[in-house]
Every structure is written in C-alpha cells, then in structure tokens.
Here is the input.
Amino acid sequence: MGATHNSINTGKPITVTIDGKVCKSTFGKTILEIARENDIYIPTMCYLTKVQPIGSCRMCVVNVEGVDGMILSCQEKAVDGAVITTNNEALFTERQNIMKLYDVNHPLECGVCDKSGECDLQNKTMEFDVDQQNFTARDQHRPVENWGYVSYDPALCIMCEKCVRVSTEITGDEALKVKFGGYGSTIINVKKEKNYASLGDAAAVCPVGALVSTHFKYTSNAWELNKIPSACPHCGGGCQMYYEVKRDRIYRVTNEYEFTNLCGAGRYGFDYANEGVSKDAEAFAKAVEAFKKAESVIVAPQISNEEALILQKLKEKYGFKLVSHEARAYQRFMRAYSEVTGKHLYGGDLKRLSESQAIIVFGSRVNNDAPTVKYHINMASKWHRARVAYMHPMEDAEMQHIVTQFIKYEVGSEEGVAALLAHTLLEHAELPQSVRGILDDLDIGNLSAECNVGEEELDALKRSLIKKHGFSLVVGSDLYMHPRAEQIAKLVALLETYAGFNVICVPPAGNAMGLSLICDLDDAAEGYTVGYDVKADFTLSALGNGDLDMPALNQQEGTLTTVDKRVVPMHVALPYGGYVLNDIANALGLRAKYTIDYTVQLPEEKGFVKTAFDDLPEYFDAVGTEHRGYLLNAQQVESGCELDEIEEIEAFDGAIVYRCDPVDQFSPFTAKAKLLEDEPVLLGSSQFAAAAKLKEGEHIRFEVDGVVFERLFKIDTDMKGTIALNPTFDMGLSSSLLSSYRFSRLVYEKINIGNNDE
Amino acid sequence: MGLEQFKNRNVGQQNYVMLDLEHTPQTGMGKFRQVVRRTFKAELFVGLWVTMREMINALFRGQMHTVKYPLEKLPISPRYRAIHEMLRLLESGHYRCIGCGLCEKICISNCITMDTRYDENQRKEVSEYTINFGRCIFCGYCAEVCPELAIVHGPRYETASEQRASFSLFEDMLTPIDKLNLQQEYDGFGAVTPNADENIKKTPLAY
Here is the structure.
C-alpha cells in the first residue's frame, strides 16, 4: 500500500489484461494489487498488504508479454496495456521450487506447532504438490529464544521479514532486525530488555510458527478455537480483533493482521471478564431501588454505546444527573470545536494521518494514550518521511526515533501554545475579521516567554512545513481537562477550517467518544449516587467488586465509537450469568428484550446511522477496505466563532505529577489482565526526585481530586524534567473519579510500608 | 492358542475343507431307510466315545479346551478395540504423546479432552488428558490418527465396574513406569504396515 503513494502520474486510468481478464485500474498500483482488486489469485508468501512490498519470497512472479523473464508482481507497477499471465507450467515449477527451498530442513514438528492448520508453509507446500525434496543444506543448531511476550524459534523461521517490517513500519518499536548471514540469517531482537507488548503485532503476521505469543505457545491448536469477531474496548481506538475461545476460555486474541493493527493491550489484555456471576435477585432489587432514588449516576467510560443510550433514556425519565468526567470534558471540548468548524465531529481520520507529510502532536503523550494513533504517525514517518513535531511538557523516549522536532512548553500553558500555533500556521490564511483581529493582537513575545516556546522553534516548525502537503494535527487529553479547554478547542479548530489540517481529537480511553455523543452529561455529581464501574453509594461493577455485578465488555454485545469516527460491533466472547443494565432499565420502565435493541435507536442527529445491530457488516474485502460497522456522519451545527482573549498563564512550579498510565494500560480492566504486568509506581527523573525531595524506593501518599494515591517512587534514567508519571489504571473503581487537568502539583506525605515484609 | 490365524489378514488363502455330505432322501421310503440305518449302526456309541476321549484328554492329558473365565482369559486379536492405553518411549520412559490434538479432533463422539502447555524445557507438555468412556464408542480413530503410536487400544475389554468410572485420566492409561519392559507394541489400527520400509523416500544429502 505504501508504494502507491509517491509517484507521478498516479491516478491515471489504465487497462491491463490479467489471465485474459480485462482489468481497469489506475496507474501507481502494482500488478498484485490490481489482480486482487479483480479477484485474481497470485500466490505470495512474504507479501503483507499493510506494509510496503518486501519481495523476499519471489512467489508472486508473473509473466508479462514482451518482457523477458519473470516479474515480481508485488513490486512492479502495472503499465497501461500490459498483458499478464499469472500461471503457467514454468511459473508453477518456479513456485514449486521456492516451496521446496523453504521446506529444506524445516522441522517436521507440525504435530506440536502452534501454526499448524493455519500455516502458510503447510498450505503452499500442499498447493504446489511438493512430494519430494531435491535440495539440501547442512542444518545448524538454532536454539529457541524467549523474548517475553513473544518467543522466536529460528529453526522454523523462513525469513520472510514480515515481522521486521511490522516492527519498523507499523508499531515503530524497531525492536526486530534481520541478522544477515546467508543460510544462517535470523531475526534478532535488539531491544530485548524492553519486552515490548507491541511485538505481538509482529508475531501475528508470522506465516509459520517461528514468532509466537509466549502465553499461547503450545496451549491449543488453531482449529480448536472459535473465532469471535469484536472490537478492542481499551483505548478508544476500537481496533478490529478476534477473541479465540475454547471451552469458555479466551486462549488468545488475533486480528485481521493483513490490514489492521492491534497494540499490546488489545492483544494481551483480554482476561478481564467478570466470571462466576449468577443472578442475585436481592442485589438486583436494591439496584432498581437505588436508580429510583438516585440523584446522580456516575459512569466510567468503559461501556458500550447501547448502555450509554439506556442511561440517557433513564436520565430523561428519572431526571438524575449523568456524570462521566472524561467524556464530559471531551464533550465540551468538541462542542467548542464544532462552533468553529460547523461540524460536530473532528475532520481527521487515521488513514489520512498515515499519509501525512507533516504531523503535529499536541497535548497528548500519544504513545501511552492511543497506541493506534502513534502507529499511524509512525507509518507516515516511515513511508513519507513525515516531519513530526511533538509538543508536550515532557519528552517521550519511545517517540524519539519518530519525532523530528520536540517543542517543550510549560505545564498549564496549552492555551498560549495553541494561540502561538494558530498565529504561526495561519499567518497567510484567510480568516474572519474577528479571529484575525485577535490573532494579530497577540503579544507573541510575551506568550512565547510564558509558554517557554521559542519563536525560533515556531519558525523552524513553519519552515519544515514548506513544500509539504498533507498536514495532520493530533490533540489529546491534556487539553480536554484544561481549565481553558473551550478556548483551546476553538484555536485548534481554526487549523482544521482555515489551514486544511487533518485534525484528530483523540478521545480519552474507553468509549468516552460514544458517551459524549449519546448522553447529556452533567459536570458534577450530587446527592445519592449510583456508579457504573465507579465507586458510589450504590455501585454496579463489571470488575466484580460492586454491589451488583455487570458484564465486562467481552461478555456483552454492543457497539463502540472509535477514534476513526466509526461505530463498530462487539460480540460475546465469554458467558455471563448475571443481570445486565438492560434488565435494570426494563425494571425501571423501559422496554427492550436485548441491549442491542437500542443500536437502531442511537441518535441520528449525532451522526449515528439507523441500523440494527445484526445488520452491521464486519469484514475486510480483498484489497483491505474496511466494512466494519459504519462511519459516523458529520452533522452540520451552528457555527459562530467567538474567541476570547488569552488568559494569564498559571505557573506550575516545583514537582508536578502527570496522570498517565504505562504503555498498554488504560483502565482497571487492563490492570486485571494477567499478561499485562505493569507496576503502578510513580516514575520520575532524578531531577524530579531532587525537586520533590524524594529518594528512589520511598513510599508516598498524595491526593488528586479526592482520590488518594499511595505510590512507590522510582527513578527512570530515560526521563528528564520535574514531571513524574502517575498511573491510574490500578485505582479500580476510583480511577474514573478523576476530573481535573492531567498535571497537578505534588503535595505528599511519606509513609512507611513494605519494610516489614521480609 | 496361537495368534497366527488372526495375524494372517489375507482371508482368501486359508484352507477350507468341503464336507462330504450325502443327499437328503426325497421319498418316504428313503427317509425310512435312513432312520433304520442310523438306529442300528450303533453310532450312538461312537459319539459317546468321542465325549469320553475328550474328557480323558482334558482331565488327565492337559488338553482342556475351555478357559476358566474370569480367572483365565483368551488372548484377543490385536485388532480388537478395547480400553485405550498410553504408551511410553522405550528408551527414555517419557510418554510418547506429543500433544498434537489430532485424537481430540478426530473423535466422533467428542469424548477426548486435552490441554497442553509450554513447559520449562520449552517443549509441549500434556497437562490434562481424559477420555470419557461413557461416551466412547471404541471406533479406533484416535489410535489410527495418532502419529506417534502413543494412544492405542489395549486388550482390557471388561468395561463394567462397581463404580461409575466413566472418565479415565492420562495417568490411568499410561504404561506404569516400572512395567515399561512389559509394554507391548500395538499391531492394530494405526500401526505401521508390514511393508512400511518399502514406501520410504530418502532425502538427498549432498554434503
């Protein structure tokens, strides 16, 4: 796919003949792509649609009339009028010989191999009738290596290099490399100590059993597992996934690896189901009573669109306040945003992000907040050498190899930074008079001093955008919870409307976007509260520690709204024996047999389409176009942009903590997953330690928004500055009570724990 | 009693003997004559003598033809499909099963359940294996499909017991390690054919 982007004449219509079939297409596409568009089969071993052609297997060779020899169809662009043969005796023999070479010394351990049954090598060996071997090579000792989340068996490896490409071009961890050495070539992991969970995505594309997930290795045969299509509910990316289930247990998570990606959390954070629940009629009756007398209902964002709609309908009926802090902040941000753009959704999408040549990331530690967005930034960086400006108060070592310019700003100065960005990038844009006036009146010198963003940095940013096209802007959660979020939203929205930026406002974790679209949310809770996955006077919990059990998201049907503005279906992977929210709603006077009866009622004025759950499509076609659920329709809203003056920036001095989970942790649900083992520690630099007067290994207690954290402090030598990362994923039912700006000053007391253990 | 007649799978070449029987008389006179002849020929005593002779042979010459079941049992054909056995490798004593799961897959009554895991030696280990003998129809597919001759049918055909022992665990079926030297190779379903050697193709080794 990548190869098709940067070439002249791209898009010119052409006609080629493949195996006698006349195929119309456009210039810039490879022969293989055109063949697949037209349902013509060309066998491949190393081809992976989502990365650039690798060309290591030579299986895809074809004959082109008038050209001597065989042509690699995965790399060669089709020219107008070409006559192509994909199969004849010579090509068959060539392919058969390739398969024989792959089979040299390949261990005959299909009986125990995890890949057996879905193995490309098995399939193609059969397909090309390899019943005898004419080639030979001296075998070598190649021990199995365990790299943590994945393990690698070099004896099984066929060196197709797909995993290396995924690790480099997609996930961007750049851990896997090829160690060249003829027959002794292997894949090596140059960042073993990091143990990236994202290597699961590299393992997923392995055509043989060489690179496999360690937790799954040797636990089940592929054909025993029942594939249940679903969407990942963790970060709000809603990535496509399959739960692979046998005897009511999820053995592994896989995906349509040919076209889609899945981060470590999606792949390894699957065992969070609320198990062993039965119907507790007494607790149910109490829950119904609690809803009747509730003055506020607080919701965590880990719910489906349908559940959100049920809560909204209950709100309309009973008049309680509906509170979900992160979703509310996002809702307000997007409302202000839409006042400028005139559309109720942001305009960007991930595909255009991956095709951008210049990307600005603002107000999000994007590698932690939304891995799928980071992957798409990485694709742009690798395929189009995109300039990536990363604007944040903290540097991120994991983004270093992608980011071309790091712009550090002061904590709390996001409004000023947004104004500076708008001022810099909209210099020559045609703006309404009022906006132009405000931007021109900005005291740039003062602002840049207060934000600590140098004018020369902004100049460098502006210069780097010259002669580039396809700009993207990614903004994140730091801005939504900012006290001046609405003003920031308007400034950012100017870039979408007047500078043609592909803007993505990454929704906070879970289904916060769906919640913000479906529900009328309130700012603060009051009186008697009912919590859904949130600690309250009466708590419904899918974590199994509340007053009434609820199903986790892999135990119920429903839809999610994703960062790509898509509504995608989830299906039931594991059984659940208890009551669901729909039962409560029915007891309270709503009428629906199943939760998914609400799918068709999702609000059309918010862009949802009137489709029943069972009619939602769920597949990718031969060229990888996504037919999964539907895209939200951007609705026109009233626009009328009123910019305020930029407010004085509140200074944050001393030690600051930043609410941010480790990579692959998002919520109490990922915290429950056994394979994702992250320690909840306060992680800071030695500079932070000095500023906060803390030593490594000390335990401290501090409070944010009334939630008490007890944390062990650790020093990370990769980090700089006086900001420490404070995770929230381990806070269980309390984590969704946090409602303020992500940065806060650290006021702590030391506590003594853990010393008496040994 | 030898097993040779069972081992010979080629039914067509055995020696059958035609009995020389006279024709059944058709007329009334003919039938009358046959009765008179048989009555006065003293064949009764021939028969009594045969019985007497066999009794003497059995009791005093050790040629007993019946067995004292259940104290004694007749050997059965290796192709008989009774309760399964799990065999071990003769060299190492390790069980032969590699956990490939083919028996579980092929089982038409869904009575085999197995679980495997990645063990400390980076090998596939069978962590759980049961056969529900309440469901098993002894079709022999599991033994036939097994690539390692690990699961076989043993000679234990008495499946009645005082307890409802419908489940059988891996350990119950496995050859006890102290009786490894007594482990019998299995000749029934799934065993290598007598001419297996002829079918082997050699891989070229140029070095």
Q: What stands out?
A: Helices of chain B lie at 4-7, 28-40, 43-60, 102-106, 141-145, 170-173.
